[in-house]
């Protein structure tokens, strides 16, 4: 498998503050990679190092086969969160300017294609400051992809979009992946990340705390969370080994297992003493995983109380 | 180069393609030179004004003579005014007078208060008390005329009045002494010293020196310096706004993802220099058209053109890079303005000393300041515009010093720019900015 981005033991400090701490990362080519993490966790710093806006203090950043350098890479497209457009420019002039900055000499056909693709035909003469937030976000997206980049980095691309525009933009991103473009996006919307991303990376306090496909993440966390219902609701639960915590939710009991405990061990212990009416392995949502890792006072590990 | 060129083109059009720019082009000369035109305009207002002065002549001899002098002066002003309107703007600036005779027998404090009230009500401009012993040269204490008006100390009318009274009194005393006043007048006639430039041989072979006047000696150098100042200001200010917009709207991140900070800064500077040359071009053509209209074409110092352009490019790059560094360090225009206060003070330095420099362009002050990089562009063109001989090594050294300072300034500003553009939140401390400047 070839990788669009490879980070090896990358560290970046700002004064005494360690923004990114020994980060290793591999983003497969042609995938959609989600960056999640609370504010100030090091996402933006990591993205800026990938974009070569800033240089790491140590470690290697390899993007599309090229190691880090001072020169911006024209094969990258970047969409900053919400803003990033000259308000007094007209749409067409602005898109032409950004395309040409990426080395595209004749961008007209590409601009027309993308404006049409996003339902923005006829907007060329409009001034940016006359556009609604959703319209501006679409133009921002066109500016990012118009020069046909191999790697697209999107910072909160769906922020402020209505469901219709969100759908349009999501389809456009999926289309980019079909064409072989690697897409990285950072988001706070865990549902979107869960739906769209092949792989998720979570950074917490500059360190990687989660990295893998959605299936592997679910497998990693769901094995530790089980839910059961007994045939007699008021029966006393037996004493169980390997359980971190138990919580009653209505007629159900939810068990969080200790690290080394397997769910079938618990089921066996329970079945020896009570009659089980229902048993399921709970699949936590990405949102729940995020909250558990990043909750105030958390240490970046998945732990329940 | 392609990226620098693209950034420069955008920056140029962002600067000159706005209504604000066109408004600035028109407003800036009005603000800077408006004072001069206002003076001319006010002179015109004065010309049409008649000042009424009440005279209490206790000698009984002076009023008629003063009245004759006033009539003659008013007639002369009327004649000059007609010539002015036909030929030249700005001459014949003194006001006309109308004298009102007051019976000296009524003079008392009540009358003085009454006349003062009339002055306050603008019915009178002044009232004058002429003592009865005015012609007595041996009187002790010496007789004095009392001229009452609002602001009499600086009043030109008081000076005119004093000159006329002295003329009559001296004349009277000479007659009393049996001296021929005509001979005295002829003997005491003042000699004029004509102000001329150096003797030169013209293209036609004629050897002569040109007349020097206030316009060519003082206002021309000042105009050239102010032009430099305007061009730098009009170029640097949009740079500040442009950088602030790119930072606050997070355009900088997109740009820095497409071009490195040196390309970005160079592109912006080149675009700004091109914009400043456009400003200069507009004012230069405007100045030529005005000069042709007024018949001052000979006064335009075309030989200054290459020096002006060279110093302008360096000055614009110097200040634009400083403004860029400041713009990248702050988040709001208000913060930028307070940070720019010391820069403005240095930038304005030539404006504070220009008159001294014009009088003595080779003085230690003038030479020293013209080698102080932030002031070099304005000071050097100011000195060159005086027409006095400036050793050629001085402007050349000025260009070298300014060039080195500009390169240093651009390098430091690029470091601040790079770090500052990614800085969000509160304004960085000065120590932080210095750290960026040193370490990048």
Secondary-structure blueprint:
The complex is a heterodimer of chains A (305) and B (440).
Chain A: E1 3-14, E2 17-28, E3 32-36, H1 43-51, E4 58-63, E5 66-67, E6 76-79, H2 91-101, H3 108-117, H4 133-145, E7 151-155, H5 163-178, E8 182-186, H6 190-196, E9 199-204, E10 207-213, H7 214-222, E11 225-230, E12 243-249, E13 252-257, H8 263-273, E14 276-281, H9 286-294
Parallel strand pairs in A: 3-8, 3-9, 6-7, 7-8
Antiparallel strand pairs in A: 1-2, 1-4, 4-5, 9-10, 11-13, 11-14, 12-13
Helix pairs in contact in A: 2-4
Chain B: H1 2-16, H2 19-47, E1 50-57, H3 62-86, E2 96-101, H4 109-120, E3 126-130, E4 146-149, H5 156-176, H6 181-187, E5 196-201, E6 207-211, H7 214-248, H8 251-256, H9 261-294, H10 305-329, H11 333-359, H12 364-370, H13 376-385, H14 393-421, H15 430-439
Parallel strand pairs in B: 1-2, 1-3
Antiparallel strand pairs in B: 3-4, 5-6
Helix pairs in contact in B: 1-9, 2-7, 3-5, 7-9, 7-10, 7-11, 7-13, 9-10, 10-11, 10-13, 10-14, 11-13, 12-13, 13-14, 14-15
Walk me through this protein's architecture.
The complex is a heterodimer of chains A (305) and B (440). Helix content of chain A is 31%, strand content 29%. Chain A has 305 residues and is an alpha/beta fold. In chain A, the strands form three sheets. In chain A, strands 6-7-8-3-9-10 form a six-stranded mixed β-sheet, sandwiched between helices. In chain A, helix 2 (91-101) packs parallel to helix 4 (133-145). The relative contact order of chain A is 0.14. The model of chain B is unreliable at 86-92 (pLDDT under 50). Helix content of chain B is 66%, strand content 8%. The radius of gyration of chain B is 31 Å and the shape is elongated. Chain B is an alpha/beta fold. Chain B starts with a helix and ends with a helix. Chain B has a four-stranded mixed β-sheet, sandwiched between helices. The chains are: A alpha/beta (305), B alpha/beta (440). Chain A binds chain B through residues 48, 51-54, 70-72, 74, 76, 78, 80-89, 97-98, 100-103, 143, and chain B through 2-3, 6-7, 10, 14, 18, 245, 248-251, 253-260, 422.
